[in-house]
Fold each of these.
Amino acid sequence: MMIEKSKTRVNVPTGAISGEGVAASEKKLEQIAYLFRDRDALARMDPETVVYSVECHEAVAAGTPGGLFFGTSTVRPGRVGDEYFMTKGHFHARRETAEYYWGISGSGVLLLMDEDGSCRAEEVTAGSLHYIPGHVAHRLINTGEVDLVVGACWPSDAGHDYGSVETKGFPIRVVCLDGRPTLEEANK
Ligand SMILES: [Fe+2]
C-alpha cells in the first residue's frame, strides 16, 4: 500500500481550489442585473463586469445522498449606485439541508432569511465561521474595497432554489450610506 497524494489542492491562504473534479463558474452583471435597484446606474455600467465567481470540488454527482460539496466563492468589490455587489442568494432545494460558510479574505455581509421572510445579517471577515441552518436562504455581499472570498461546504443533495428568492426577494438591501455599509428596507 502507498500513501496517496491528493489530486485536488486548496490554497489555504487564498481559498483557490485546483486539480481533479473542480468546476468553476462566474456571474456577470447582465445575468443578475434584476437584483439591483438603481436602473440608471446599471445602464452606465459594463454588462460584462464579473460580479462573482465560484470554484467547487464535486467528488460525487449532484443529488447524491450523504455526500458533500466544497467550494470557494469570490464576490468582487463594486456597487450599482449605492448598492454593493452581491450573489443571487438561494434556498436549498432540499430545504432541511444546512451549510457552513467561512470568511477567507475581504469583508462583507451574509444575509440570512427564513421562509417567513424574517432576515438577519452577519459580518463576514477572514476567519469568521457561519452556520446556515436548513430552511434559511443565504446571500453574500461585498462591502469592502477588495475581493470577498468565502469558503463553503454543503450536502451534495442540497440543490439550489433560486426561484423562491427571485419571487420573494430579500427584505433588506446593503447600501453604502455616508461611506459605510448600512442595512436598508428593500422596498424603501
Ligand atoms: Fe447554499
Amino acid sequence: MSSMDDKKKICRRCLIRDLAEEDRKNLKKYLDVIEPQDRADPVEYERRLSVCRECDLLVEATCQACGCYAEFRAFGKCSRCPKKKW
Ligand code: SF4
C-alpha cells in the first residue's frame, strides 16, 4: 500500500451538499432551526456559496476563518463573511 492510500483526502472548495447524505441531513437539521424570516434570500444564499467555493479558506465544507460550515454561515440573513468577501 502506498503512503497516498494512508492519507485522508482533503476536500477543498466543497460544500456539505457535495458530501454524504448523512452530512446533508445534519446540515438540514441546523438550517431548519433558523426562522424563515431570519434566512437569507435563496438567490443571495447561492451567491454567497459561490464565493465560498472560490475561497482558499474553504476546507472540507468549513470556513477556516470562523470555523463554521459555510452553508450554515451563509444561511442567515444578517450573516457576514469574516473576510468581507460577501
Ligand atoms: S465565509 Fe468568507 S472567508 Fe469563509 S469560506 Fe466563505 S468566502 Fe471564505
Amino acid sequence: MTRKTTSSSADPLVCDFTGGTVLHRFKYGGGRGQSLPKAVGMRGGKTPKVVDATAGLGRDAFLLASLGAEVTLIERSLEMFNLLNDGISRARDAGGDVAEVIARMTLIHGDAKDLLPDLSPEVVLVDPMHPPRKKSALVKNEMRQIREIVGTDEDSLELMQVALSTASNRVVLKWPLRADPMDGIGPCSHQILGKSTRYDVFMIT
Ligand SMILES: C[S@@+](CC[C@H](N)C(=O)[O-])C[C@H]1O[C@@H](n2cnc3c(N)ncnc32)[C@H](O)[C@@H]1O
C-alpha cells in the first residue's frame, strides 16, 4: 500500500446513505438486473451472503444490502473505516427503509487478507484502488480523495489469492473496463461489463 499525504479537494469526503447518488440509486436503480447484483449471483431468487473485502465508502455493499443481501464489509484504512462507520451510524439513526438496509450491513476494521479465512465467505467482492488512469482529469473527485487517503492497493493480487482460497461460491473482481486481466490468478469464469468498470467473476462451485 503506497500512501500519499497531499490534499487538494475543497469538499470533505463524506459517507452518506441518506441522500445524493446513493439514495437516488436506492430509489430508482435497476434492481437485480444491475451488473453488480448479477455478478454476485443474485439470480433466480438467490440471495447470497457477501463479504465486501474492500468496503471503501460502502456503496457497493449498500446496493447489495438494499436488494436483500447480508453483507460483511471489511475496511483496513482507519480513516475510511471511521468515515464509513459514521455514515452507517447516521443512516441507522435516520430510521425508515434506509435503516432497514443498514441492518443487513456489518462493518469490520482490518485487513481482509487476515480476516477472510475466519469468515468462511460464500461470495467475496474485491474492488481495490486501481492504478491511476492516464486521463486523470476523468477520475472523479471523490475517487481522488479516497486515493489521497489510502494510496494504491498494491497487494490486490494477494487479496484475490486469499479470496479465491476462502470463498465457497465465487469471487467477483471489480476492475476498470479496459484494463488487462489481473496477472497471477488465471482466467475468470465470465465477465459482466458496465460503462466504465467490469466484473470478472471467478466461480468456485
Ligand atoms: C476502490 S475502494 C472501494 C470502493 C467500494 N467498492 C465502494 O463501493 O465504496 C477500495 C477500498 O478498499 C480498501 N482495501 C483495499 N485492500 C484492502 C484489504 N486487503 N483489506 C481491507 N480493505 C482494503 C481500501 O482501503 C479502500 O478504502
Amino acid sequence: MRIKDVPEFAILGHPNEGKSSVVSTLAENDRVRIGPYPGETVHCQTFPVTIDKAEVIRFTDTPGFQKPKQTLRWFQNYNGPQDRMVQAFIEAHGSDPSFRDECELLGPVARGAGIIYVVDGSRPVRGDDRAEMEILRLTGRPRMSIINCKQDDILYLDAWKNEFRRTFNSIREFNAHRATYRERIELLECLKSVDQDWQEALVRVIDAFKRDWDHRMGVASLIIVTMVEEILCATSEGTLGEGADPKVLRAKLEKGFINTVKQIEHKAHTDIRRLFKHNIFNVELPKNSILNEDLFSETTWKFLGLSPREVALAAGVAGAGAGAIVDTAAAGLTFGIFSTLGGVAGAAAALLGGSRIAGLKLKGVRLGKDQIIIRPAPDAQFMYVLLDRAFLFYASVINWAHGRRDYDDPGKGEAKGAGVTHAWDKGTKQVCRDFFKKTVGGTSRKREEARIAMVNRIAERLRQL
Ligand SMILES: Nc1nc2c(ncn2[C@@H]2O[C@H](COP(=O)(O)OP(=O)(O)OP(=O)(O)O)[C@@H](O)[C@H]2O)c(=O)[nH]1
Ligand SMILES: [Mg+2]
C-alpha cells in the first residue's frame, strides 16, 4: 500500500539519548526542547517540514521508554490481530500511570508513523535496549536506527551495529550536533529503502529538500549582494559650522559611517541565519572565529588572506580605518582634514609609494557651506573583506545543526587565510569590480545588469562551498 499522505516518522528510544536533538536537526527546527537530564520530553510533539508552503514530511518527538521489559512481555503475549497490536496496548494501559510514557510514545506508531530509533552509541548495549528494539520489531512498522554518538567514543559502535542488524532494515550513524545538510539528505535516502511503500513519497521529499536548499543559496546570494550594494551607497555627511573643528566633525562622521556599515552587515548576517531557520538560537561562532574580530580591524583583513598591499589598500581607502572616501566641499579644509589621516592610512600611502593617497579622493566643490561626506570607495579591497566575512558566516550557519545548542568546541576557529575571495578567478573578480563600479556610477540599466551577474556569480560560489 503506497502512502498518499505526508510521511510521518516518530523518533523513539531510551530517555536522554538525543531523540529531541535528532528531531531538531532533521526538521531544522530550533524550537524543539532539548535538555541535559532524562525526561525532558514528556509529550509527543510533531514538527512538520514545510517547503513552498506545503508540508512534505513530519517528525514526531516522543518521551523515552520507561518500562520496556514489561511492555515487551505484553507484546509477546498478545494474540489479537497484528495490525491492532499497538492500539490494543494503548487501550489496555491508557489508565495506568506507570505506562504513561509507553502509551504516549507508541501513539504515533499506532497511527501509522514510521520509526527512527535513536541510541547513544558511546555507551554499551543493555537489556532494556534489546527489549525496546524487539518491541519495535513486533510493531512491524518501517523502521531504521540511528547511532548518535554523544561522546566521540566509538568503542561500542560495532556492538550496536551487530545488535541492530537483527531488528532494523537500515542503520545509520548520524550525529545530531554535527550533521550537515548532506548527511540529512543521506539519512532520508536511507529511509527511502526501509519500505517499498514509502519509497515514492520519500523520493518527493528528497527532491523538495534539494530544491529548497538550492533556492536558499540563491536567496543567500541576493542577501549578500544587497548588503554590498547598500554599503557601497552608504554615506555619512555633515556641515562644518562657523569656527568648528573639522577633525571633530570628521571623527563624528567616520563613527557614524562605521556604525552604518556594521548595521548593514549585521542585518545581512541575521537574514542568512533566518534563511537557514535558526530563529531562536543565535548560532554561536567559534570563540576565536575571525568573525568576532572587528570588521574594520587589520587583523581581520590579514587573517582573511589579504596581502600586505591589499591590507594597505583596504585600510587606506578606509580613511583612518573606515573603508571610506572622504570628500570635502571645502577646498580650504582639504589639507587640514587629510593631514589628520594618520595610522594605517599613512602606512598605506607609504606602501603605495605616495603616488596616490590610497584611494582617497578629494572633491573641491564649493557648495556654499563646508561639507564633509564619507562614503566607501567602490574599488576598495574592503568590499572583498565584506564578501569574505559573509561567506565565512554562511559556512558557519549551514554547518550548525539545529539540535546543537551550545558551542562545546572552543578550540577551533577558521583556518588562517580563510577568506575565499583571494582565490577567485579573474572572471569572478571582474564581475565583482564591475558590480562595485556600476552600483555607484552606472546607468540604471548597467547597474541592474551588473547586479544580476553578481547575484548569479555569488550563488555559484556559495554552491561550491
Ligand atoms: N555532545 C553531544 N551531545 C548530545 C548529542 N545529542 C544530544 N546531546 C545532548 O544530550 C542531552 C539529551 O539530549 P535530548 O535530545 O534532549 O535527548 P532526548 O533523548 O530527547 O531526552 P529525553 O527527552 O529526556 O528522553 C542534551 O544535553 C543534548 O545536548 C550529540 O550528538 N553530541
Ligand atoms: Mg527529548
